[in-house]
Amino acid sequence: MADEITPLFAQYLGIKQQHPNEVLFFRLGDFYEMFDDDAVEVSRLLNLTLTHRGQNPMCGIPYHAAKIYIARLLRLGKKIAIAEQVGDIPAPGKGLTERKVIEIITPGTALESEYLDGGINNFLASLCVRGKETGFSFIDVTTGEFKATSFETASIQENFPKELGRCSPRELILPESLRSNRIIQDTVALFDSMAVSYYPDWNFSLDSGYERLTEQFGTANLRSFSLTENSVEVMSAGFLLDYVSKTTNVSSPHIKSIQVYKDSEYVVMDDSSRRNLEITGNLRDGSQQFSLLECVNYTRTAMGSRMMRKWLTFALTDVNAIISRQNHVELFVNDRTLLRRIRDQLDGILDVERLAGRIAMDKAHGKDLQALRASLSCWLNIQSILGDSNFALINPEPAAEIIDLIANSIMEDPATSLTDGGIIKSGWSEELDHWRQVHDNFNQVLDEYVEEEKQATGIQNLKIKKSGNMGYFIEVSKGKLDKVPSHFIMRRTLVNADRYTTEKLQELESNLNESDTRILELERDLFLEVRNRLKAFVAYLQQTAREIAYADVTSSFAEAAVRHNWVRPVIEESLVFDVKGGRHPVVEQHIPQGEFVPNDLNLCSEDGCTFALITGPNMAGKSTFLRQNALISLLAQTGSYVPALYARLGIVDRIFCRVGASDNLAKGESTFLVEMTETAHILRSATEKSLVIMDEVGRGTSTEDGLSIAWAVSEYLLERIKCKTLFATHYHELTRMESDRAKKLCMAVDESTSEVVFLRKVISGSSQNSYGIHVARLAGVPEPVIKRAQMILEKIQGEAEDKPVINADEHVFEEEKSAAAPVSFTGGLFSDEELILDEILSLEVDSITPIQALQTIARWKHSLSGR
Ligand code: ADP
């Protein structure tokens, strides 16, 4: 078998051996070819034709269209190694062209815009466990953003998904030793579009990581980044840098710092709460539709869009920082003309942050520089529009300098290739102008020369022509050959004419050729010189990009506030949660205007209540009410306005949103165990400053179990943790729980007609318990069944000693069958009188409205009189 391998295939195998984890794109002429398993997999993934080369499966893609295919493979989480032909192509039969992997493209280190999503950071993340501590780091090579944090290994089950959820990396690299760890595997499985790979543990070394980081940042130590030689973050962060430089094969001088953050700096939200609240993506398909992001994101630039995501996933806990953002949003809200002018200018700004990265990594081409120039011009306009507002803005002079440099040196619409010319403006370099003149004047010079020879020789039809392989020549027709002078050098004889050259013609031609080559070389060199000069501005451009993003996000918040009629919340260092006329930002946008019913919530105010128990039937609006308050709280801490008439909010440190198992069953992930694990997590981690949303907890088990758990959990939150809690339940038995610090709320229902109408209004009190049965009636369940259900329900609720024996009274239904309609149903455990008496005794007179009282009496009368 071995002797059948051609030298070319042996070369392929040699390279493939070094890149077992990547799809190898092997350059053969105008194609990238893939072989063996790579070919089989890629042909399946990209729907390409699979052919064979001898025994080996093979498929190929044209090299000029490679980016489209690479982009698709990256989205599928694949890594690609590009093996190019390097060195000279040998003469036929004289050995092989050398081939080498020149670049590895992975989802988390891709640099070209074709592989990136403009409005989303392209993060590469890493995690490393060292005993009791775990470090987590992530980096976006395209922007230079680099962050790290650490937590106790004991809490990895909560913190690892939480951190992954915050940054949503496209790629994760882990130490080999974690490959078989169940928690790691379970977590990784939650993020299905993320590429995951494992590397030997020694890569995550503290010493080399420290060295790598100091070298990258050009600092003697890492103190200014709050890291020491012993910080666990160094292990993962160091390897990230290593991995980036090995895969991209370019240096990344724009990565100049790392931000180490702590949980206390931002609102902590575990991954499942973040998903449940649908912050950046909906629960159904993860897309932005129907997410919070969708209804606040009016950003106009890619940088703004990325910052918006960050603000929503890293909401602040520092009152002053929030107020400072609010002040800027307010400036725009109060001055709509200013808002419009700023946003018009933002429209003209491209991705300055990634352009700066491209300049730093020697990737920028002429069009990139023109994009930068145009963007900076708009930015300078923004600076002057903002004038002496309270925005702290960077010195505009370097921006003006950059604009001048590019405007003077680069053509308006330059070529993207560096080797084909068409980049540098005339007037920028005398030498280039000279050679361009030589080139441009060539035809004129040639015409003059023809004229000169015509005069000298008297051959009037003498012509200068050009052919592909001969270059320029003088042609003399056969009839005039006797006039050919001696300085004409014969090149070829044809039937009708002879072709000559002369020394002068050769000189002119070589001048032309030289001018062509010099123009291309000079354009390239001059462009690189300009680009190198711009490298000095990379840090400045990064800061500019941050300011642009800031102006974009704050004005986007203002736009949302104006469009949706939101209000600036009062933020303070207290426990208060007081929202009047609160609305759900997303639901409100998706129902007809004006139909959303606003609701209030007041916790931790004068009455000292921390806990609200919300009862009500399904579909009455409980979940919406719960979520809207969590979203208002989160939005407020990003600096945004909130969907309410008024809000006064103390800072919350954590937001939890637990949704009962059955509400989540569609996702197939919520077993009762998951529900309880998450509940346990909340009970362990919530503090007095936290906001806890519990929606139908305890549903995933039997009624008695569920009720007891819901009760105990409520008590713990109420008595021990004392956090702000919204607890929605269909167990109205819970309303018997008494505490001065718990308030009972329910969803108002209009029963004045035969239809049950959910008013979506949260009112004080507890829900009546018969709505499920009402809904059953509406659904057409036969009346005797409804009545029987009512009876059983009331019996259960009465906790009578003699529990109803279901099915024992079979005659109940038999009787019904024989009776003529309408039926007066009398069977069962209790008479109508008993039932009514029972209902009177259990009625909460304080919590029903006069109209409800009248309706209830009418129902009793109807029931007793049969009318
Ligand atoms: P529950 O949790 O009680 O089952 P939901 O909160 O899921 O009820 O609400 C059911 C539906 O009612 C939602 O899809 C929403 O469209 C609508 N809804 C909820 N609250 C309101 C409100 N305040 N105003 C208008 N419509 C609402």
TrEMBL record:
The keyword Transmembrane does not apply. Keywords: ATP-binding, DNA damage, DNA repair, DNA-binding, Nucleotide-binding. GO terms for cellular component: cytosol. The keyword Ribonucleoprotein does not apply. One of its GO terms (biological process) is mismatch repair. CDD domains: ABC_MutS1. Gene3D superfamilies: 1.10.1420.10, DNA repair protein MutS, domain I, MutS, connector domain, P-loop containing nucleotide triphosphate hydrolases. ATP binds at G616, P617, N618, M619, A620, G621, K622, S623. Residues 690-706 form the DNA mismatch repair proteins mutS family domain. GO terms for molecular function: ATP binding; ATP-dependent DNA damage sensor activity; damaged DNA binding; mismatched DNA binding. SMART domains: MUTSac, MUTSd. This protein is involved in the repair of mismatches in DNA. It is possible that it carries out the mismatch recognition step. This protein has a weak ATPase activity. PANTHER family: DNA MISMATCH REPAIR PROTEIN MSH1, MITOCHONDRIAL (PTHR11361:SF34), DNA MISMATCH REPAIR PROTEIN MUTS FAMILY MEMBER (PTHR11361). Belongs to the DNA mismatch repair MutS family. This is DNA mismatch repair protein MutS. The gene is mutS.
